[in-house]
Structure formats: structure tokens, C-alpha cells
Amino acid sequence: MKEIAEDPLLAKTFEIHGYLERDMYRVLLEEVHVGIGSLALDRQNMTEGSSLKTAELLGSGIPVYATHRYPTVPDDFPFFRNVPRVEISDLLDYAAYTARTTRQEIVAASAPHIRKRNGMLAAADFLRGLPHRK
Q1: What are the tens digits of pLDDT across the range 76-103?
Q2: Cα angle value 132/70/102 (rounded, 5°)
Q3: Which of 63-67, 74-78, 121-125 has the lowest average pLDDT?
């Protein structure tokens, strides 16, 4: 984020927001082209996360760019890009690629992957695979 804040060209393309009240957040979502998912989960030794933020963005028809897997979204899902690290040029290319798709199409494609029931089924499958304690 520091790179964006210090580069005048990037600062024209990206806006960094701190905490927003819910109403302001909703207004902002109407203007967003790509949402940034959780970053740096690897610092917590995590490779995937199931954040409410990601589900909310996809459910609003906004594609997500992140550095982690989302457990209920297939790896080849076009509206969730999982990258090892954020590259501004790749993010801009992704925004251009997803701009051809309407928000309604993204919502429809995302719905099966972000429903709570599907997440709970994925969690149950994971837990079943853990070694049982005696």
C-alpha cells in the first residue's frame, strides 16, 4: 500500500480507505471495479481463508484479487484471482479482463460458491479428514 500512496500515477488509479461506516462502504462498493481480498495470510502460516469480505464482494458482483485460496471457490474461478504476491500490472490486467462481465453475471456465477451451506459442507469434509483423537 505504501507503493501506491507514494507513486503519483498509482495514486490516481487506486484509493486507499481506512475504516468506513456501513453506508459509506456501500456507496464505495458501487464504484469499485475489483476488490482486494485479504493479503499476507502467509505471515500467519495460512494459505486459504474464508473471509466475509470476499463473500460480500463476490455477492455484490465485484471480482476479487487476493493472495490466498478461498476454500469454496474453484482454483480456476474467473472472478477470484489467487496470486502469490500482488503485482500492480497484473491487478490492472485483471480489472480490464473482468470489466467485460456485468455485476449480475458475477453474482450468478459466485452464488454457488459463497453460500453458507457450501462453506459448512466444505468445513465438515475437512474435519472428517482430520485424524480422530481417542
Answers
A1: 999 999 898 888 889 999 999 999 999 9
A2: 150
A3: 121-125
Burial of 59 (0-12, 13-18, 19+ CB in 10 A): middle
Under the banding of pLDDT at 50, 70 and 90, the label for residue 1 is: low
Q: What is the pTM of this model?
A: 0.75
Q: CB-hemisphere CA count at 13 Å for 31?
A: 8
pLDDT on residue 133: 62
Give the separation between CA 28 and CA 56, rounded to whole angstroms.
Answer: 13
Can you spell out the DSSP letters for the chain? -HHHHH-HHHHHH--------HHHHHHHHTT-SSEE----GGGGT-SB---HHHHHHHHTT--EEESSB-TTS-TT-TTEEE-SS--HHHHHHHHHHHTTS-HHHHHHHHHHHH-HHHHHHHHHHHHHTSPPP-
- Say which residue the cell 456501513 belongs to: 22
